[in-house]
Fold this protein.
Amino acid sequence: GWAGLLLAGWGLVRGRGRLRLPAALLLGGGLLLALGAYDPLDYVFYRVVPGWALFRVPARWLEAAMLGAAILAGLGLEALLSGWRRPAIRLPHRLRLWGKIGLLVVTLALIQLSRPTSFTLALWVTTAIALIVLFWQASRGRTGAAVLLVLLIFLELYGASFSLPIQHPTAPQALRSWRTAPARIAAEDEPLCRTLSLSTTTYDPGDLAELRQIYGQQLDAWALNDLINATKAKEVLAPNLGMIFGIPSLDGFGGGVLPTRYFVQAMGLFLPPEQIVADGRLRETLRSVPDARLLSMLGVCYVITDKDFDAWVDGIYYDLAFGEALTSAQPELQITSLPLFPVSTVGLISYLQGAAQLADGEPVAELMVRFADGRTEQHVLAAGVHTAEGSDETPGVHHRRDLPAVAWRYHAAGHDTVATLRLQQQGKLQAVSLRLLRPDVTLFVRGVAFSDAASGAHASPPVSRHPWQRIHSGDVKIYRNNAVMPRAAFVPRAVLSPDDDQTLAAMQSPDFDPRATLYLAEGTGMEGAKGEVEIVDWQPESIRLRTRAADAGTLLIADAWYPGWQGRVDGDPVPVWRANLFLRAIPVPAGEHEVVMSFQSRSLRLGAMISLGAWLLWLLLMLAPRKRQR
């Protein structure tokens, strides 16, 4: 507020006492360090002072600046009440004049940059007039003016904080109430399964009208908006909210994986280098569901995706969260999760690559349908009729940047790429597959829908070669990974790979099978057999397992590697190696064994000892002067 700043300036110029210089250093130093990378001093500290590079959010230095400003404001009020005595710092007349002009210019510039409303500008003018009157009266020793000056400070602080949540507390249900998506995942009762949320919060909750009806009379507009935003954030399990419901997540906290340096490096498995963020969050950067093999290795059982950018065509819903490519190397695609009702129509959303020279009507793929009673049908997909040329770089194509990354393709004639194939007869399905007919083109299948013209029923299973199963469809969709790896499993082949860049490239290869091969940053590579692992107890800082294997092997723990983890096999210590960039692995001999892993941080113990020693030293220094006084 203007009153507080003016008093702080008065205290800096006319204040007296030992606190003035320390308060000025707090104010100036805090403002300077709050600039972060724009401050040369901060850069020097970053390079020279040990541990300075670990600090985040330089703006938090404003805490020190505000403390210094508060002390100076108190000194300014004291100086004001004592009258117009000679200032502690006497500046030349010309310097004081230019200082006033500079202050006026800065004030006008701030007004121009902030473009205040007429109401705000009127309040500023009123405050300025009140300040001039109150300063004049307080300088003449009138205590009442000083009291009104302090009151003006509180009024300004209240007005400035009116837009903050502290002035508009929302209902406790914003935090405590469950939502459908987390409740559905919790009902699976898989405490070691991680979740990856890719959904945005651009949708309106299905119960938006009910929320407004229940809370609209109790909350103001801002508090109600906070409640709705919190409701959507819980529905999509935004980063760290899974800790409220006890649902582990892949990114963030509360799931055995932390955003350490190695985890951020491993994000290169999912993202190009320019899109990797240092805090390890994937939800804001991923634009499609990552490779299912890697998610399975990381223990991701559930993926939450958006519904905003799925398709409705002629009243038929198409699930576009996934998609597969039919190529010469993988020319066939089996559609799973078939509907139970009789089907009369099959719809496809697809596009081609490499078919620009094909004539319209030329066959590119074949849809094969087998009914439960043994009947079969074949339908040909023709270029330019059922599927058109398209790519992410096609000029004029509208590519949605939000999840899922759906690009609508348009044929040169203006027809879209939704193909509706009517079956010759209606019936329940047993198998549906697609087969590529030309090796010189690539067919991308984004969505498939089955419908019954008689009843109007329709269903759209996920299009993926991996066994994803949609288990929930509401405001968001939840898919279960039916081929996830256990959090602790034997991997037959362990390869020593100290170079993390080479490991990253190897894991990005389509040939990488996390069930068969793991890469060790340290330790000893070995070949072994698959064994059995029984989880006895799994806690954040201790894990107890029983293993059974015919040969010695390497046990992969799909949790973050970090200094301080110690491993024991039947009570004997074993090394804990960093594997697959940021996970843990330990060697286990053949036979039946009890494996225990515990976290015992050496740096934590050392820090506790240093802190205790510092407290004892502080206590001695406090007691020593008292003894001398006695």
The CA atoms of residues 379 and 520 lie 49 Å apart.
